[in-house]
Amino acid sequence: MSTSVMIEADGLCKQFGSFLAVRDVSFSIPKGQVVAFLGPNGAGKTTTMRLLTGFVAPTHGSARIAGIDVQSDRIRAAEHLGYLPENGPLYPDMSPLSLLKFFGEARGLMGAKLHSRVDAVVGQCALDSVAHKPIGKLSKGYRQRVSMAQALLHDPEILIMDEPTSGLDPNQIRGVRSLIRDLGKSKTILVSTHILQEVEPVADRVLFIHDGKIVFDGKPADLARMNGNLEQSFYSLTAQPV
Questions:
Q1: From its phi and psi, is residue 108 left (phi > 0), alpha (psi between -120 and 50) or beta?
Q2: Angstrom distance (rounded) from CA 117 to CA 113
Q3: Long-range pairs, 102-106, Cβ under 8 A, ≥24
Q4: pLDDT computed for residue 2 by the predictor
Q5: CA distances from 46 to 5, 83, 85, 96, 190 (A)
Q6: What angle do CA 128, 130, 136 make, to 5 degrees?
Q7: Which phi and psi angles does 86 have, rounded to 5°?
């Protein structure tokens, strides 16, 4: 399906018992835009991303990936999507190479196409030096690169990444930022973070969520100008519950 809107949330709500984690969230992200999903811990970022990817079902509302409803046709939507959860699905006894081949086969890649894509993401994510080592023996930074590689394996048009720099050191963070910038030249990206320094280097736009609701949608520079800088704007938007 051809569409200029690649990620769309329409009135998304998610309730866990008496707790309303996501409250009537609506937005759309056009093709080629890199969007930072900003907010404090517990604001609803991860739950919203799980709703967008079809990982959990909404209580109300709908989500579409490349124009495809993720609840009614999740498999077809997943063909367009690379998802990096905060704690990626890694098997510690496997090597990055064997894991990528396993995930590639699960996605229907075979033969020369599978080998070509594995080679491409190993290079893209700088995994050559650890490709044959057990994942359980790798540093947090390298494990994050393996998770990134599996999200990129089928060369999706859309990437949704949940806290991709969580727990990394400054050098590793710089590497992930650089990779996101490069990917943003050809892909639509939604990347969640609660770290202000992540926003301006990578994002064209900020969606700010607090207490389960979108409270700001605009450019990083506009968010900073609200209260003189990003830190003060963050405090202002989260000072009171919605």
A1: left
A2: 6
A3: 103/150, 103/153, 104/153, 104/154
A4: 53
A5: 21, 12, 8, 25, 12
A6: 150
A7: -60, -40
Looking at every residue in the chain, the average pLDDT score rounds to 92
**Residues 37, 188: Cα–Cα separation, whole Å:** 13
One-letter identity of residue 111: G
Ranges of residues in the chain with a pLDDT under 70 are 1-3
Spatial separation of the C-alpha atoms in residues 110 and 14, rounded to whole Å:
38
Q: Helix or strand or coil: residue 231?
A: helix
Spatial CA neighbour of 120 closest among 108, 136, 104 = 104
Q: Do residues 199 and 220 touch, judged by C-beta distance below 8 A? A: yes
Among 144, 146, 136, smallest CA distance to 100 is for 146
3-state secondary structure of 87: coil
15, with CB counted inside 10 A (0-12, 13-18, 19+), is middle
Residue 34 CB partners (closer than 8 Å, separation 6+): 180, 181, 184, 188, 189, 191, 202, 203, 204, 205
Confirm whether pTM is higher than 0.85. Answer: yes
Cα three-residue angle 77-82-86, rounded to 5 degrees: 120
Non-local CB neighbours of 85 within 8 Å, separated by 6+ positions: 49, 55, 147, 162
- pLDDT for the residue 168: 81
Strands 205-210 and 188-193, bridge-based pairing: unpaired
Q: Are strands 19-30 and 5-16 parallel, antiparallel or unpaired?
A: antiparallel
